[in-house]
Design brief:
Strands 1, 2, 4, 7, 10, 12 and 13 form a seven-stranded antiparallel β-sheet that branches. This protein has a four-stranded antiparallel β-sheet with strand order 3-11-8-9, with no helix packed on it. The chain is mainly beta and 184 residues long. Helices cover 0% and strands 45% of the residues. A hairpin with a 2-residue loop joins strand 8 and strand 9. It starts with 41 loop residues before the first strand and ends with a strand. It is built from no helices and 13 strands.
C-alpha cells in the first residue's frame, strides 16, 4: 500500500466531480470524522421554555435557541431556515403538546412548512379518550433552492380547557427543529 501526502486535491479545470477509484470498490476514510462542506448547511434549534398556544390555532413554534447553525442560515428572530446552498435536505421537528390537565387534550398536530405550505404533518386524535399531552416527530426530505426557499415548524392543539402549550426545556430533548443537506 502506498501513501500519498498533499495539501490539496482539485478537479481538472472545467469539471466539477472528483472521482476516487473507477473500477474497484472504493472507501474513503476521513480522520476524526471531519468532512468539510458535507451535510452543510445544517442547523438544530430548540424551544427552551413553554410556548402558549391559542386553542385550535396552528402556530409557528418559537425555536429561538440554536445548538448548531453551520452557515448562519437559521434565523432565530423568525424561526426559519433558509439555506444558501441548493440541494436535498433532511428536515425534522419534534414537539411535546400539552393540555396541562388530564382528559383535556382532544386533538392536535405538528407540521413542517416549506414557503408557507404544509409539506409534513403528524396528527394526534384522542377524542374518544382525551389525555394530557403527547410527543410527536416528523421528518421529510425537501428540495430547497439555496436562495429563497425556507422551512418552518408549526403546532396546533384543541383542548377542553384554555391552557394549551408546546413544552420547552433548557435541554434540547423536548421540542426541537433541525435539518441538514444530504445531497445535490
Amino acid at each position: 500500500m502506498s501513501k500519498l501526502e498533499t495539501n490539496t486535491i482539485d478537479t481538472i479545470s472545467g469539471t466539477s466531480n472528483l472521482t476516487i477509484g473507477s473500477t474497484n470498490s472504493s472507501t474513503v476514510t476521513f480522520e476524526n470524522g471531519a468532512v468539510t462542506g458535507h451535510n452543510y448547511p445544517a442547523f438544530h434549534a430548540f424551544l427552551n421554555a413553554n410556548q402558549d398556544l391559542t386553542n385550535g390555532v396552528r402556530t409557528k413554534v418559537a425555536f429561538a435557541n440554536e445548538e448548531l447553525d453551520t452557515d448562519n442560515c437559521y434565523d432565530t428572530s423568525v424561526y426559519r431556515f433558509t439555506p444558501t446552498v441548493a440541494g436535498e435536505y433532511l428536515i425534522y421537528t419534534q414537539a411535546v403538546l400539552s393540555a396541562n390537565a388530564n382528559t383535556q387534550f382532544v386533538d392536535g398536530d405538528i407540521n413542517i412548512y416549506k414557503n408557507g405550505s404544509v409539506i409534513g404533518h403528524q396528527s394526534f386524535n384522542f377524542q374518544g379518550n382525551p389525555g394530557n399531552s403527547c410527543n410527536g416527530s416528523i421528518s421529510r426530505i425537501v428540495n430547497l433552492n439555496g436562495s429563497s426557499d425556507y422551512v418552518e415548524s408549526f403546532a396546533q392543539i384543541n383542548t377542553n380547557n384554555s391552557d394549551q402549550k408546546v413544552l420547552g426545556s433548557s435541554s434540547t430533548g423536548f421540542t426541537l427543529f433541525g435539518g441538514f443537506r444530504i445531497g445535490a
